[in-house]
Design a protein that fits this description.
Elements (H helix, E strand, L loop, with lengths): L10 E4 L8 E6 L2 E5 L3 E7 L10 E11 L7 E7 L2 E9 L2 E5 L4 E4 L4 E5 L4 E6 L7 E10 L10 E5 L4 E4 L2 E10 L2 E2 L8 E8 L4 E5 L5 E8 L3 E2 L2 E2 L5 E5 L4 E5 L4 E8 L5 E5 L2 E3 L2 H13 L32
Antiparallel strand pairs: 1-25, 2-22, 3-4, 4-5, 5-12, 6-11, 7-10, 7-12, 8-9, 8-11, 10-13, 14-15, 15-16, 15-17, 17-24, 18-23, 19-22, 19-24, 20-21, 20-23, 25-26
C-alpha cells in the first residue's frame, strides 16, 4: 500500500529515544487519511507522538467499509524501497500485482509480504467481483542497513500458526509468539499477531521484556492491560513486560505488534525508507524516469507520480517526539 499524501512530511525515526523503557499505556486514535479515490484509513504510525514500534514504521487501519456497490480499494502502481509491506485482511479481498510479475488475491487470514529491498513497485485493488465488506491493515517494517539493499521478493502465506487458550486465538503473522513461529521472512527480531478474543474471554499472553509492543484494535472492544480499546485505536505498551493481561465482554480482535527497539536512524518519505536525503532524492528521480523500480502489468490505469521533495534536506534524527 502506498502513502498517497501529495505533500508527505519527512519522518525521521529510529534509535532508542522515545522507547518506553518500562511498561506504559499510551493511547492514540490515529489520523484519518484518504487512500486513493474510495478508501479512508486511520494512520496509527507514524504520528507526532510515536514514530516506530520495534521495526514497525507505518500502520494504516481501514474499514470495515461497505463496498458492495463501490470499486473498493484502488491503489495504482507505486514504488517502495528499504522496507517490507505486510498486508492483512479480516474481510474482503485485495489483488496484489508487482514488478516481479507476482499476481495474488489476498483473503482474510492470509499474509501478503512484500520485501522491497533495493527497489520494487506494486499495485493493490479490490477484484472486480468482490465481497461486500473490506476491512484490514497495511503495515510497513523498516529493513536494517545490512538487508535494505537485498533483492526484492514476494511471499504469500495462506496458512499461519496459531496460539490458543482461555477464549483466545492468536494467528502469528510475523516473528514468534508463545513458541509459535511464522514462516514469513523477517530481518529483525519482531512479532505481529492477530489476536481474537471470544465474548467473556480472559487470558494472558506471554511477552518478551526486551521487546516494545503496541495493540491496534480491529473490532469489538478488547481490554488490553486494563485499557478498553475502541476499534481503530492503538495502545503503546512500552518494554519490560513478561505477559499481557487481556479480556473481552464482546467478541473482539486486535493486532499485537512488537519487536526489539530499532537502533538505526532512518528517513522515511513517501514510500521510501533510507538513511540520507541523497538516496531518497535519487529514488524519487529513478521512479519518475522509470529506470529502477520495474513495471507493474495488468493494472488498468496510470501509475502514481512522486510528490515534490521538501525544500530542505531530509535528515535522520531518531525517535524524538
Amino acid at each position: 500500500m502506498s502513502n498517497l499524501d501529495l505533500h508527505p512530511a519527512p519522518t525521521e525515526c529510529g534509535g532508542r529515544g522515545g522507547v518506553g523503557a518500562g511498561p506504559v499505556r499510551e493511547l492514540s486514535a490515529g489520523k484519518e487519511v484518504r487512500l486513493g479515490e474510495s478508501t479512508m484509513v486511520r494512520r496509527l504510525l507514524p504520528t507526532l507522538g510515536r514514530r516506530m514500534v520495534g521495526a514497525w514504521c507505518f500502520i494504516d487501519h481501514y474499514g470495515p467499509d461497505d463496498v458492495a456497490r463501490a470499486p473498493g480499494m484502488q491503489v495504482p502502481p507505486h514504488p517502495h524501497m528499504g522496507l517490507q509491506t505486510v498486508s492483512w485482511l479480516q474481510d474482503g479481498e485485495v489483488l496484489h500485482r508487482d514488478s516481479l510479475g507476482s499476481e495474488q488475491t489476498l483473503r482474510p487470514g492470509q499474509l501478503g509480504l512484500m520485501t522491497s529491498g533495493r527497489a520494487i513497485s506494486h499495485s493493490e485493488e479490490s477484484p472486480r467481483e468482490h465481497a461486500a465488506v473490506l476491512h484490514g491493515a497495511q503495515l510497513w517494517v523498516a529493513l536494517p542497513d545490512a538487508h535494505r539493499h537485498t533483492a526484492p521478493a514476494w511471499e504469500h502465506h495462506a496458512a499461519l500458526p496459531e496460539v490458543t487458550g482461555g477464549g483466545l486465538t492468536a494467528t502469528v503473522i510475523m516473528g514468534e509468539l508463545d513458541g509459535a513461529a511464522s514462516p514469513a521472512t523477517a530481518f529483525t527480531p519482531i512479532v505481529g499477531a492477530d489476536v481474537v478474543l471470544a465474548a467473556g474471554a480472559s487470558a494472558r499472553l506471554p511477552l518478551r521484556p526486551d521487546f516494545e509492543y503496541a495493540a491496534l484494535t480491529m473490532s469489538g472492544e478488547a481490554e488490553v492491560d486494563g485499557v478498553r480499546l475502541a476499534p481503530g485505536s492503538m495502545l503503546y505498551l512500552g518494554c519490560g513486560r513478561s505477559e499481557l493481561p487481556l479480556r473481552a465482554d464482546v467478541d473482539s480482535s486486535f493486532l499485537l505488534l512488537g519487536g526489539e527497539p530499532f537502533e538505526e536512524r532512518i528517513v522515511m518519505w513517501w514510500n521510501f525508507v533510507g538513511r540520507a536525503h541523497e538516496e531518497i532524492a535519487q529514488a524519487r528521480s529513478e521512479w519518475m524516469t522509470g529506470s529502477r523500480f520495474g513495471e507493474v502489468h495488468g493494472y488498468e490505469g496510470t501509475r502514481l507520480s512522486a510528490p515534490e521533495l521538501p525544500p530542505v534536506a531530509l535528515k535522520p534524527r531518531g525517535r524524538a517526539r
